[in-house]
Amino acid sequence: MLIRPTRFFFTEPIVTAVSVMSSVVFASVYLQTEGLTVTYEAFGFSERQASLVFFAWIVGLTLTIPLRMYDWRRVSQGIQRNEEVRPEDKVTGAYVAAPVLMAALWWFSWTVPPVGASISPYVSLAAIVLVGACTNEFDGILQGYLTDSYATYAASANAPLAALRATLSGSFPIFGRQMFTNLGSNIAGSVLAGIATIFCFIMYWFYKRAEITREKSKYAVHTGHEGDEKSDA
């Protein structure tokens, strides 16, 4: 039961990349539930007022609707033209989310106390709205991509993601408050922004090489002529 998911995580680059990115971005939400309270109490918010900051994430979820509509329209048009729909045709949101998440986290990191103590808290709240939108894209879109790419083996491909996401989500809150208190919100936020910057490079690789990598895998779905030739073989 554990052998194939473990093998996929260490030998399938797509599974590795998606599992790490999606898990870290998703688990960072739990880290921020602890850290953002520290950040906004420094603005003078009460503990109850600081907890209301998390509604900004909910607002961010609505920003993903246009991307879902775009992907749906793109796939529908391909079907109408009798074109084969590739898994890569459904991940536009993740390509957009990567640079936006990076920018939003850098934006947040340097518009909060102590460096941004004189800046209105609503400036950094706008960044959190974008973080919420991007978190939804990384979590939902990339997991869907794994399912589309591995079809019959989707359970084994998603298992490493589920395990890593659960582990990190349970671990991050343990040190979230200490991280933002001891490092300060500017540095703690910059750590998250730095990770998001690395994810931008991974998503660039994803854009350039994901389809080729998928076609070379003996477990993933093959599309196009190259996939047909391999299936015949």
TrEMBL record:
GO cellular component: membrane
Electron transport listed as a keyword: no
Coiled coil regions, renumbered to chain: none
Transmembrane segments annotated in the record for this chain: 12-31, 51-70, 91-109, 187-207
A GO MF label: transmembrane transporter activity
Taxonomic superkingdom: Eukaryota
Topology class, membrane: Multi-pass membrane protein
Keyword Transmembrane helix: yes
Record-linked SUPFAM superfamilies: MFS general substrate transporter
Keywords: Membrane, Transmembrane, Transmembrane helix
Protein name (Swiss-Prot/TrEMBL): Uncharacterized protein
